[in-house]
Amino acid sequence: MDILNNAEFTDYTQWLGILTLVSFFLMISAFVFRWGIRFRLVGITSFMAVLTIGLFGLGLGLSTRTEIPGAVRFSRVYDNGANQVVINVPPQITESELEATLKQAASDYFSYGRTARGDDNRLTIRVRTLLHPEPGLSKPLYLGQVKRSLTVRNDENLQIDIFPDQLAQLLQDQDKL
């Protein structure tokens, strides 16, 4: 079976939307002319509207995901739903992997649904790892951050900041092990 792409979903959504509008006008005509099937047309039109909205929403979810080479797996620790995200990476990360991971996170967490609070119209993603200096104690270590636009999908002006002193501390901690 061939998988539908986003363009096909858009076409199907448009056609279903047109059929929903035709059904709506047919329903309005049934009420004006007092046809016996007018209440059945209300159900048909409502069901077609639900299908149209569902297909539209399904098409939104099929956006392509950018894969950045060299990025390591990360997990989201905090997200305020607006302009701040914190992700966690493994402590064995290198500087080049950290930069690629920041780019990957900037791509993954972009959404038109995010809104800025205040004057800053940028999404800030901070990267941290957890160190365990002694058993039963965890210490978060922030390794860097990336800032990107909240309104531009393919933001060319990513502001990537890697904290070299924190990376050096991470390397020292790894040497102790």
Which properties best describe this structure?
177 residues, alpha+beta, five-stranded mixed sheet, 4 helices, elongated
Describe it for me?
The chain is an alpha+beta fold and about 180 residues long. It has two domains: about 55 residues; about 100 residues, no CATH class. Helices cover about 45% and strands about 25% of the residues. It has four helices and five strands, in the order ααββαβββα. A five-stranded mixed sheet has the order 1-2-3-4-5. A hairpin with a 2-residue loop joins strand 3 and strand 4. Helix 1 packs antiparallel against helix 2. The chain is elongated, with a radius of gyration of 25 Å. The N and C termini lie far apart (about 50 Å). The mean pLDDT is about 85.
Topology:
Layout: H1 6-32, H2 38-60, E1 75-79, E2 84-88, H3 95-108, E3 122-134, E4 137-149, E5 159-162, H4 164-176
Parallel strand pairs: 2-3
Antiparallel strand pairs: 1-2, 3-4, 4-5
Helical region count?
A: 4
User: Roughly how many Å is the radius of gyration?
Assistant: 25 Å
Q: Please count the beta strands (DSSP E, at least 2 residues each).
A: 5
Query: Largest sheet at a glance?
Result: 5 strands, mixed
Secondary-structure element order, as H and E? HHEEHEEEH
> Class by helix and strand content?
alpha+beta
Question: How many domains, in number, for the residues?
Answer: 2
Report the uncertain regions: none
Spatial shape: elongated
Q: Averaged pLDDT, please?
A: 87
State the end-to-end distance: 51 Å
As a percent range, the share of helical residues equals: 40-55%
Approximate strand percentage:
15-25%
The largest beta-sheet arranges its strands as 1-2-3-4-5
